[in-house]
Structures are given as C-alpha cells and as structure tokens.
Design goal:
8-stranded mixed beta sheet, 49% helix, NT_sf, Hydrophobic Seed Protein, Beta Polymerase, domain 2, elongated, 21 helices
Length: 415
C-alpha cells in the first residue's frame, strides 16, 4: 500500500459516532455513485482524533460542482453556491449544512487568491492544503486516509506542521501565517520550528491581506484555549504589535483568562480584546478599523474601557447597579477587568459569591414614567426626558430604594 493510499479504520471509535448521522449518510448516498466518491475532510476528522467536539462537517468529492448541484437538486436538496468558482457548494440536508468541495489543484497563486482546476487525485488535493492535520480524509465506511503520511500522527501529537515546504505554502496564501498561529492557539501541543521561522520571515506580507481576513483569523486565535502561548510566540517573533496595531499586554490577557476560569465565566471577544490591547476609546477605534470589526464590537469595547475606570470597590449593590445599567454579562466583564487592572481588592471567594447572587437577581423596575411627570405639570419634550433620566440615576444611586413618591418630591423636578 502506498503512502497516498494508506488508511486506518475509525468506525469503531466512539469519537467518530457522528459518521452515523442520518443527514451525513444521505450525503454519502447522494455522491458515492457513478464512479464518484465523497469523503469528510478537515476539522471534523481532526477534532475527532483529538477527542474534541465536531460541529461543522466539510467534505471533499471527485464530482465537479455542476454535478454535485445537479444531483442535489434532483433529490430536492437545497443548494447554496457559496464558493462555486473555487469548487465549493453548501448542501442543506435535514436542516444540517455540509460544505462540499471538489478535489482541486492550484495552477496559480499570488499570496491572496488561487486559481484552481478540478481533479480526481486525492493525493494532489491533500498536497495543496496547508497543514498535515488538515489533510486527513474519512470515507463512508469509516476509513481514515492520510495522504501526507503524517497527518494522523501530527494531529494526535497536536503538532502544527505545513505540508511540504513552508515558504511555498505561505507564498500561496499569506493568511496561512495567521492560520499557523491560530491552530497553535486552538490545539496547543507544539509547532514545527522551521515552519515558525518561515512565518516570522513572511510577516510583512500580512499587510497585503484585507482587514476582514486578518480580523477573522485573529478573533479565532484570541478565542483559542492556548491563546496565551500562541500570542507569546507571535510577540517573540516581533509580529504581534503590527497585527494588532497596538502594544499588547500578555500579562493582563493571561490574568483575565485565569480569573475568568476561577470565576467560571466565559470570556467574549469584547473583554478579550480589551484585556489584550485596549486602554482607551482611541485604541478600540483603531483596532476595529484595522481588523474591520463590527461597529457593535467597537462600541462594546469603548463602553467597557469607559466604565471600568469608575470601579473602585465591589459590593452587592455596586454590582447590581452595573447590571441594571449595562446588563449582567457586561457587569461580569467590568468586575473581572477591574480585578485584572488591580483597581479592587482580590477577594475571589467574595466576588464569586456576589456574581452568583447577581445571576439570581431580578432587576427592579423603575417606578416612574413620563406620564407621572406630565401629571406633575411638566410639558412634553426633551426636558421631560432629561428629568426622567436624572431621576432614574438618583434611584439607581440609592440602591433602587427610593419610592415613587420620594422620587416625585425630588428638587430635580423643579430645577
């Protein structure tokens, strides 16, 4: 058996139970005919080998896109031509989506895009992929195919390794520099050192990529389980400040993750970025622009850095005020950021209890409305809204204790 044909039986491994999903079986039945073949490839196979979760299932097939779409439509399967020019279509089967890509060979690359031709050679399809752990295929019978000869071993060792010459792989698509570090952030283990050196050498080429592509990879990287180690590797290589367009603080980032773990909180992208490299609103605006982040994420970062500075102590009522004004999730983030910045004392047992109580807390309802102020003789308009807002602030500052009558008697009504 040649290296290109070597395979391992995986169907008895419980980690591959998803192979039995009815929707996937329908896909196999659809495309395994008339001399064509389909296999699962990429993340689903890799994650199963590592005992991780399987979400998306991507497939490769010898059938060309036009034939895949023809057969799917004939079977009343919804087809989305998500990347048909590059051989990829998405099939919707029983409310599950499957990306199906025809076997390909690159004929021209410029570091950002590739021109491809469709083929039928699994070894050639594997050779054009980036990492060995990404070039493992699984067929309908539960056989694992490892055309590079080291994909399965590298996956199990959590070794991020380019297929073939790293410089050539990188020159085909410079985003692979960030993908290299993103995979390291997700899977840990180790990386092939010559490949790391090649990535560092090519870092200047990242400037040729769109902000959207860089931003998407960096968000995945920062969310990885081993993000600290990966970011540290990027920092030591001199590339992290340029990618983030800021001076990162890995110490602060690592402390955030440690505290979030102790307090059993799941960090979202907003708090991760703020801890890593956002100190003031201008930082948030710059990073959002460079990485083409959504406006809602930019605004959320600005809100965190603006409000965390006001926190000097943590008590039940102060946490409740934060939750009332910003929502419980943001309150959690603000408390942890205040701890990270060492603005408050680190009594984690107390804070854990307070956050637990907050989860059970039901925000009170502000007892006043605009109608109450109209009944007191105020005229409709902007001034009424301003007075109502001022009264709500007074009510919140009182620990939500002032009654409707007490609020209506406040001098602010007549100022």
């Amino acid at each position: 058996m040649t290296v290109e044909e070597r395979f391992f039986l995986a169907k008895e491994d419980q980690a591959f139970d998803w192979l039995k999903r009815p929707a996937l079986q329908k896909l196999f039945a659809l495309l395994n005919r008339d001399g064509e073949e389909v296999r699962v490839v990429g993340g689903a196979v890799r994650n199963s080998l590592l005992g991780g979760k399987v979400n998306d299932i991507d497939c490769a097939t010898t059938a060309e896109p036009s034939l895949v779409m023809e057969w799917a439509r004939a079977a009343n399967i919804r087809v989305l031509p998500t990347g048909v020019d590059h051989g990829t279509v998405t099939l919707m089967i029983d409310d599950e989506s499957f990306e199906v890509t025809s076997l390909r060979t690159d004929v021209a690359t410029d570091g950002r895009h590739a021109q491809v031709v469709f083929g039928r050679d699994w070894a050639e399809d594997a050779a054009r992929r980036d990492f060995t752990m990404n070039a493992i295929y699984l067929d309908a019978a539960g056989r694992l195919y490892d055309p590079t000869g080291s994909g399965v071993a590298d996956a199990k060792k959590r070794c991020v390794r380019f297929i073939g010459d790293a410089e050539r792989r990188i020159a085909e698509d410079y985003l692979r520099v960030l993908r290299f570090f993103r995979f390291y952030a997700q899977y840990g283990g180790h990386y092939n050192t010559p490949d790391y050196v090649a990535c560092i050498a090519a870092q200047r080429q990242l400037a040729s990529l769109s902000g959207e592509r860089v931003g998407a990879e960096m968000q995945k990287l920062i969310s990885g389980r081993y993000a600290v180690e990966s970011l540290d590797a990027m920092l030591k290589g001199g590339m992290l400040p340029a990618v983030l367009a800021s001076v990162p603080s890995l110490t602060r980032f690592a402390r955030l993750l440690e505290l979030m773990s102790i307090l059993r909180l799941k960090p979202d992208m907003t708090v991760l970025l703020v801890a890593l490299c956002v100190d003031v609103a201008e930082d948030a605006k710059r990073i959002a622009g460079v990485m083409r982040l959504p406006n809602r994420l930019r605004d959320a970062m600005i809100r965190l850095v603006a409000n965390v500075r006001t926190i000097r102590s943590i008590s039940e009522i102060e946490i409740q005020e934060l939750a009332y004004l910003h929502g419980k999730d943001v309150a959690h983030d603000l408390v942890v950021l205040a701890l990270v910045r060492r603005q408050v004392s680190t009594d984690l047992t107390k804070i854990s209890m307070l956050l637990h109580n907050l989860d059970l807390w039901r925000p009170p309802v502000f007892p006043l409305s605009g109608r109450d102020l109209l009944d007191k003789g105020m005229k409709p308009g902007r001034q009424l809204g301003k007075r109502l807002s001022e009264l709500e602030q007074i009510w919140v500052a009182s620990g939500f204790s002032l009654s409707k009558a007490q609020l209506l008697s406040r001098k602010v009504l007549h100022s």
